[in-house]
């Protein structure tokens, strides 16, 4: 079997992992466009594997650009509902693979413009698109926060990097009846949101959990990291610039951890939007726990060891979600959710978080739809329907996250 045949076979295998979740046109595009052309030098098996492929790193080795996991790419395309003839803007060219898929979907009567902040990444994407034969895609080197007004308005705008806010340019360049799809960060929680125009602003038609490399340029807002302990036993990751009294937290590790178990058992991946329910707590953040501190028995493992567990802080006290296995199989283990409190008010803060989780379980459980609305800061946000989980004020927009049961 030659390289072309192997690649085609691997593409078909890649698609099998999520074929039932996507429409025929998205599946056909992903079967047609050769992903390996956009990640040169990467073995075919890895190019068509289930994970992302990092293509560029900074001087510290932190990934700055990648080809997103195929399932993530397919999910965004499904949310976008791209049609032949659409004019399309992509923010974040990356490898060029996504732009090639979009070019396939819009067909000869459509148009795709993609903007990349990093000149080196833009050049690589331009070369890969040319090698594949997608020369019609216009690659711009620049700041995607400003959009591309000369090519708009756009039927679809896709942002393929983590966004902290909805840029005014995206709203202005989105055509009537258009759709904006972006990974939106709210209080440290990311949802890939498909927005459409509403009477007063933008309203989501879908929202799914996923993770992306953060945006660069004028729209970039780095998370605030607060290390705690001589060996960074804990790190708080906070999504805004709220003041943190690091001195008050310095002694939080001097107390014994206090764990309160909820009695709620779920598979490891359980979220059900409970994170946004907790996001209304003052001091909501992500808590990263050093694996060596966990291995030494100094601290209980967080519910999410690698992505940061949901937590909160108040004064000199921290609480974060933990878990213990209660059954299930190796493929689908079952865990009981708990909360670990640290510091002088650890028991009390842990109890508050447990109370919040229990209330969610009793009031919503698995029967929740999430709606996210974006209103320009100068406009008054309407009350709307559903239970408001959290209101987030950003530079250009007010976001309201609601649930309906």
Automatic annotation (TrEMBL):
Top EC class, one word: transferase
GO biological process: methylation
Subcellular location as annotated: Cytoplasm
Domain of life: Bacteria
Molecular function per GO: methyltransferase activity
Record keyword Methyltransferase present: yes
Enzyme Commission identifier(s): 2.1.1.77
Gene3D superfamilies, A to Z: Vaccinia Virus protein VP39
Any Pfam family hit: PCMT
Stored SUPFAM superfamilies: S-adenosyl-L-methionine-dependent methyltransferases (SSF53335)
Matching InterPro entries: Methyltran_FxLD (IPR027573), PCMT (IPR000682), SAM-dependent_MTases_sf (IPR029063)
Keyword field: Cytoplasm, Methyltransferase, S-adenosyl-L-methionine, Transferase
Family statement drawn from the similarity comment of this UniProt entry: Belongs to the methyltransferase superfamily. L-isoaspartyl/D-aspartyl protein methyltransferase family.
Protein name: Protein-L-isoaspartate O-methyltransferase
Lineage: Bacteria, Bacillati, Actinomycetota, Actinomycetes, Micrococcales
């Amino acid at each position: 079997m030659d390289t072309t045949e192997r690649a085609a076979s691997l593409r078909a295998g890649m698609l099998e992992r999520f074929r039932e979740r996507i429409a025929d046109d998205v599946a056909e595009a992903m079967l047609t466009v050769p992903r390996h052309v956009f990640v040169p030098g990467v073995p075919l098996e890895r190019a068509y594997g289930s994970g992302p492929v990092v293509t560029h790193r900074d001087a510290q080795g932190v990934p700055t650009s990648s080809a997103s996991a195929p399932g993530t790419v397919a999910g965004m395309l499904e949310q976008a509902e791209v049609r032949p003839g659409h004019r399309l803007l992509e923010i974040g060219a990356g490898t060029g693979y996504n732009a090639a898929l979009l070019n396939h979907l819009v067909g000869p009567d459509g148009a795709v413009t993609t903007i990349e902040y990093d000149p080196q990444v833009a050049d690589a994407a331009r070369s890969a698109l040319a090698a594949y034969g997608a020369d019609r895609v216009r690659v711009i080197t620049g700041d995607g926060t400003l959009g591309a007004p000369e090519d708009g308005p756009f039927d679809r705008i896709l942002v393929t990097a983590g966004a902290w806010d909805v840029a005014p340019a995206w709203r202005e360049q989105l055509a009537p009846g258009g759709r904006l799809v972006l990974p939106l960060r709210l209080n440290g929680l990311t949802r890939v949101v498909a927005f459409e125009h509403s009477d007063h602003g933008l309203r989501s038609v879908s929202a799914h959990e996923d993770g992306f490399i953060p945006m660069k340029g004028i729209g970039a807002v780095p998370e605030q990291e607060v290390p705690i302990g001589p060996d960074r036993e804990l790190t708080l990751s906070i999504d805004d610039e709220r003041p943190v009294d690091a001195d008050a937290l310095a002694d939080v590790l001097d107390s014994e951890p206090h764990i309160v178990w909820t009695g709620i058992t779920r598979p490891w991946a359980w979220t059900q939007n409970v994170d946004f329910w907790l996001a209304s707590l003052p001091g909501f953040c992500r808590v990263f726990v050093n694996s060596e501190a966990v291995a030494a028995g100094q601290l209980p493992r967080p519910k999410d060891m690698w992505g940061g567990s949901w937590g909160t802080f108040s004064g000199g006290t921290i609480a974060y979600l933990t878990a213990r296995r209660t059954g299930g199989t190796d493929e689908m283990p079952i865990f009981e959710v708990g909360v670990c409190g640290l510091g002088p008010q650890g028991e009390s803060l842990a109890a508050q978080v447990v109370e919040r989780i229990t209330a969610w379980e009793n009031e919503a459980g698995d029967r929740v739809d999430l709606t996210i609305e974006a209103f320009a800061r100068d406009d008054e946000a309407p009350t709307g329907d559903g239970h408001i989980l959290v209101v987030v004020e950003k530079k250009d927009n007010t976001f309201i996250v609601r649930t309906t049961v």
